[in-house]
Amino acid sequence: MSSRLVVVSNRVADPRKTAAGGLAVALADVLKNTGGMWFGWSGKIVEGGAPGEGELRTQQAGPVKLATVDLSREDHDAYYLGYSNGVLWPVFHYRLDLADFDTGYIAGYRRVNQLFARKLQALLKPDDIVWVHDYHLIPLAAELRALGCNHRIGFFLHIPLPPPLMLAAIPGHDWLIRALFAYDLVGFQSNADFGHFARYVESEAHAVPVDEGRWRAFGRTVQAGAFPIGLDVEEFTLLTHAPEAREMHERMKREYSRRRLLVGVDRLDYSKGLPQRLRAFRELLTKFPESRSTATLVQIASPSREDVDAYTDILHELESLCGSINGNFGDLDWMPVRYIHRTVARARLPGLYRASRVGLVTPLRDGMNLVAKEYLVAQNPEDPGVLVLSRFAGAAEQLREALLVNPYDVEGTAAAIQLALAMPLEERRERHELLMRALRQHDVHWWCDGFLAALGKTMAEEKGTPWLRL
């Protein structure tokens, strides 16, 4: 890849610190090889700052330039808290009941995307390739086009895209989808999300199919497809065998030598299905007495947006469920649920995964969910644990040999957990081998290379065609 890659996301990561995981791991090599740039919000909120304005800062991280912009309090609250996380996040996760359609939020969302476009355009070189990430920045390409930017620009959505009728509940939904046509390539986590996009653009936007995965509307042509994000299998394998993870594994095996561990690692979010998971575990203890005194669930729920009412509610619900389960089923030498409401260092997690007979990844809706893949990579292939996975996670399209469950079905999920706990060694090995084959074939480098190759093949729009501001 000869052109410089410019990555744009809400937050910026230093690609030298790949232990942080996420996009930094996926994009580190290509950014370093092209002397790329990563652009986004600095994380700094300027009290009393002027809306639509923000100071630009740049620094070098080896061969990669990091460029960040500050946000005023008003912009942050409207763009990030209001529209991105108060409207798009709940609706895209199928929770219309939690969306706050305050009309003032969308103005701040557009204003910040316009701010980012102005700051970014001044830094772009003529042959740059721009890769924009996630729901915070859907209109960014349209704002760049309005400023005369003719670069090749791709967009990848890390969260689900809901069905057309649900998407149409958002006031101004047509504006959002029109903005996606300013990109040359739009990528989704799953075939289901891609199918929702295809149905929407044809039924609501009256887009004309041009070719497979390609539509024309609003004077532009967009290519779209499913690009399921993978894990850096080699990096996580090394992390699994590093001292911190080994120490955690040995300690867990020692402290829980008489128990079979189940593990869940999630952000505290209503999309993760945590209350449903705990109810399924309670059902397991009720219906399968052989699991009492032998099965222990370690549930990590990292803090997330605790100033939002919906998160306070779920926190209280989780605490109540954990207390109820431990009170009704626990004994002097056995605590059924170990609930941890804080962030656990990533370096320690592989040891916890490896010590657990069952990995519980049961979101109500998720774009991909890399915890499912991390759990599998961390297992001992000679004596692997079993992944119980929600069919509503994007990862379910790839990980068919996991035990797929409907997290809304508490009894069915409990039965699947019992099946996982009792699964014979030979079957566990067979399932794990097939799952690992899929993970290695479709790893994070496959995802990154595949998206950028597809973006490189998109037909450039005619130069000089003006993009009307949305």
Protein architecture, described:
It is a single chain. By secondary structure, this protein is an alpha/beta fold. Helix content is 42%, strand content 20%. The radius of gyration is 23 Å and the shape is globular. Residues 461-465 have low confidence and may be disordered.
Structure summarized in a few sentences:
With 470 residues, the chain is an alpha/beta fold.
Global morphology: globular
Distance between the termini: 32 Å
Q: What Rg, in angstroms, do the CA atoms define?
A: 23 Å
pLDDT < 50 stretches = 461-465
CATH class label of the largest domain? Alpha Beta
Question: Percent range for helical residues?
Answer: 40-55%
CATH superfamily label of the largest domain: Glycogen Phosphorylase B
The beta-strand count equals 16
**What class, by secondary structure content?**
alpha/beta
Q: How many structurally independent domains?
A: 2
Q: Going across the major beta sheet, what is the strand order?
A: 3-4-2-1-5-6-7-10-9-8
Question: What's the number of helices?
Answer: 16
CATH architecture of the largest domain: 3-Layer(aba) Sandwich
Features of the shown structure:
470 residues; alpha/beta; Rossmann fold; 16 strands; six-stranded parallel sheet
